[in-house]
């Protein structure tokens, strides 16, 4: 981890994924890269706007002139992912101290700890995590859970990967913390060369082999639920037969503090006493 002589006051995040966690720990983010569509993630877009965070470039690009223009005293780079600026490390380090994080291998809480240490905001990070864990525990105590197991799917239909959350990934951990028993997808269904701890990137044809009685859909709202329930190929899935398919919201695929809170609150609305 890069050692800083003083706590930073002007942080540039070249990773839109890391930006959400930086905002959650009240880091002084003055500028950030955006998603590939040129927008910030919806779950924290309003927070970024309120704090005056400048949108510098979409994922996949780096504008060094813009880096110099915002005069950062700390730059955050992701080691992996579509928003990684690792290829530009040498030039970024010529501008300001630069830290590299690997959000793909961490929960948002672990990333918050790491960024808290890097920014002198470790206490802020711990307070945010503690408050979130307390919120999860409070919600868990007031849920009436469906019987049996649940699964979590990013449903994309035929001709595409349909990622299924693992028990040990960030989505599985969050649902298990709320008391759900998460079905483990068969790792042999994984259809990409890159290993993933969060998802099995399964072909559409494997979805009917899932056995859980309840399905949660990621990255969609109730329109996605209706689409899945109409899919004749999935008619014999236990959750579809029972009509127990629920959307966790359009921001639920990429979990940070803000989207995790949205998921927990949606679960409360669905299953609260």
UniProtKB/TrEMBL annotation:
InterPro entries: ABC_transptr_periplasmic_BD (IPR002491), Bact_iron-sidero_bind (IPR051313). PROSITE patterns: FE_B12_PBP (PS50983). NCBIfam families: PRK10957.1. GO terms for cellular component: outer membrane-bounded periplasmic space. Keywords: Signal, Transport. It is found in: Cell envelope. This is Ferrienterobactin-binding periplasmic protein FepB (TC 3.A.1.14.2). It comes from plant metagenome. The lineage of its organism: unclassified sequences, metagenomes, organismal metagenomes. Its main location: other. Residues 10-273 form the Fe/B12 periplasmic-binding domain.
